[in-house]
């Protein structure tokens, strides 16, 4: 996301390809109760690209970027003031926008109430994630939800935010280590939480994981898993979003943004067809490195990071 701010100063003609396998933060709670793909990364990118040229645009961005309190009781109470149009966050949002956004927040709330066996925890919940999830379930389409969110947040017309996989199913990221160990879940691979504060509020992700909590062995491969149609997670091979391939064939440059190599970049590269299209492109290809190591890249040099990117 940090690169986006600088990139916007150069051009808005950019296609952003993002994975839908993040199982941390408030996204995890939405997926647990309502199922479906993780929308947190897509929501975050849409907000980064959103319009800030007017008072109303800033008000909409503030509303959709708001997070509820960490305390579950306080979070639920504040959520109800937002759904009932009684919160100061609605100030500056005109009636057409207000009715559109609120309609999908109410729909999201109704979907939660329909799952009476699962108590939804609003702790640290993202209003943008709730709006996005409500739209996806209503339209039964991830693409339609992105289109709506893009219009509401007024991202530039030449900017596209695409999911690497276009699905309504829940996808889990898995990895195999060099010693044969299998780790299930992006959060467990990248940002495992063990301290008491995170046990108390499982929706909060410890993204400050220090390289000292390194993996027991280096990562051999990344793959997708699903429990759809069965009670057990098993490896699956989802199809790449065809729109991603279309855009890749027309690019002037391909940029691999900063982030976790194996859980942010590779989930898009392992999809069948992506590597072949990229390999045939003679355009400039840029890998922006992190300034420090993370759990996934502990001990790796800059040249080491190029190998898994090329192999996937």
UniProtKB/TrEMBL annotation:
InterPro entries: CofD, CofD-like_dom_sf. It comes from the Eukaryota. Gene3D superfamilies: CofD-like domains. GO terms for molecular function: LPPG:FO 2-phospho-L-lactate transferase activity. This is Uncharacterized protein. It comes from Adiantum capillus-veneris. The lineage of its organism: Eukaryota, Viridiplantae, Streptophyta, Embryophyta, Tracheophyta.
């Amino acid at each position: 996301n940090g690169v986006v701010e600088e990139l916007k100063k150069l051009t808005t003609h950019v296609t952003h390809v993002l994975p839908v396998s993040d199982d941390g933060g408030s996204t995890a709670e939405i997926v647990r109760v309502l199922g479906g793909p993780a929308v947190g990364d897509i929501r975050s990118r849409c907000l980064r690209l959103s319009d800030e040229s007017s008072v109303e645009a800033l008000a909409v961005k503030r509303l959709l970027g708001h997070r509820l309190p960490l305390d579950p009781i306080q979070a639920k109470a504040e959520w109800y003031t937002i759904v009932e149009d009684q919160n100061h966050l609605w100030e500056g949002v005109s009636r057409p926008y207000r009715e559109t956004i609120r309609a999908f927040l109410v729909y999201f709330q109704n979907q939660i109430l329909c799952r009476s066996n699962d108590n939804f925890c609003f702790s640290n919940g993202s209003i943008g994630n709730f709006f996005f999830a409500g739209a996806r379930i209503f339209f039964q389409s991830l693409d339609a939800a992105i289109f709506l969110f893009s219009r509401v947040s007024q991202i530039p017309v030449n900017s596209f935010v695409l999911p690497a996989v276009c699905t309504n199913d829940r996808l889990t990221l898995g990895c195999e280590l060099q010693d044969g160990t299998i780790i299930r879940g992006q959060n467990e691979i990248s940002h495992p939480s063990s301290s008491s504060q995170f046990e108390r509020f499982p929706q909060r992700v410890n993204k400050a994981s220090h390289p000292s909590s390194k993996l027991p062995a280096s990562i051999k491969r990344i793959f997708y898993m699903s429990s759809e149609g069965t009670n057990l997670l098993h490896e699956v091979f989802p199809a790449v979003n065809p729109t991603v391939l279309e855009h890749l064939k027309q690019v002037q440059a391909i940029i691999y943004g900063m982030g976790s190599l194996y859980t942010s970049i590779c989930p898009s590269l392992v999809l069948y067809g992506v590597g072949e299209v990229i390999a045939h492109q003679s355009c400039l290809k840029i890998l922006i490195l992190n300034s420090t190591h993370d759990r996934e890249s502990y001990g790796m040099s800059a040249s080491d990071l190029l190998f898994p990117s090329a192999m996937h």
